[in-house]
Amino acid sequence: MSTADRRVGFVGLGHMGSAMAARLLEAGYDVTVWSRTPSKADELCARGATRGEGPEDAIATGLVFSMLSNEDAMRAVFTGERLRAAPDGFVHVGHATVSPGAAAGFDRLAREHGCHYLSAPVLGRPDAVAAGRMTVLASGDPGTLAAVTPVLEAMGKRVWDFGPAVDAAPTVKIAANYLIVHALQALAESVTLLEGSGIDTGKFVEVINDSIFPGPVYGGYGRAIATSTYTPPGFTTTLGHKDLMLAIRAAETLGVELPTGAVLREVFESAIEHVGEDLDWACVAEITRRRATEPLTN
Q: Of the chain's two ends, which shows fewer C-beta atoms within 10 Å, N or C?
């Protein structure tokens, strides 16, 4: 596999995928894009991308990056039939957050058809991608990673190599998202406490971002929670719940206890039902707010 001709494919054009594909265009790559919703490719094609009529057109480039919504969507796109028809040495770089077991399965299927699979989940919201601040967590065959690293570096600020085990990077990503879930709930509880005291929560968010918790999580999500601003979503409640469940199930597989997992699961499921499944996942804070002002019921 070579990236010398700078031809690549990109499959999955949601908020993150579109931003990542745009970075590749800006870096001078010839990008063939495909989405299950054709209109999502319009803006990228207007900027110079080639529209794929199906995933086969992206696969034909020999190197495809995917940012699909979940592992079931990945299985539906990267089938054995399509891998059999792929060019020699075909490489699929999977950016979605999937279970460690699913990553191992994608790697196994790729090898069965003479192809390569690399795990490369990412950290960062679409605005971070656009600004070149995305972080890539990678694991899998060292030679494959070395070959695609220049392309990954065109999309983000740093590529972290977690070794040859293809399930390693997905495990790191799951742990990182589990940490963010805790940050959302911690912010929700602290902001609700201050609201009960009539204190300026916006100033509180500024203080923590300027001192103990600088960065996009407590800053960006803190402002969203303080102002109850959950649109447009950078990452939806439904996707947040999916990633939370990946952490809970990974812990069960490993025999590791996550004491707060059940509580967080109940908060997310309540938010999906009562607040909004397609809002930004920071909206889970509304569950804590409501429980602070409404009578508790059994």
A: C
- pLDDT, tens only, 193-236: 999 999 999 999 999 999 999 999 999 999 999 999 999 998 99
3-state SS track over 124-137 = CCHHHHHCCCCEEE
- Is the separation of the CB atoms in 67 and 17 below 8 Å? yes
> Quick check: 136 and 96 in contact, CB under 8 A?
no
Residue 286 one-letter amino acid: E
50-51 and 63-66: which strand pairing?
unpaired
Question: Is the model's pTM score more than 0.90?
Answer: yes
User: What superfamily would CATH give domain 170-293?
Assistant: N-(1-d-carboxylethyl)-l-norvaline Dehydrogenase; domain 2 (1.10.1040.10)
Instruction: Report yes or no: 40 and 57 within 8 Å, Cβ to Cβ.
Output: no
| d(C-alpha 181, C-alpha 221), whole Å | 11
Closest CA to 178 of 88, 268, 247: 247
CATH 3.40.1280.10 at 7-163, yes or no: no
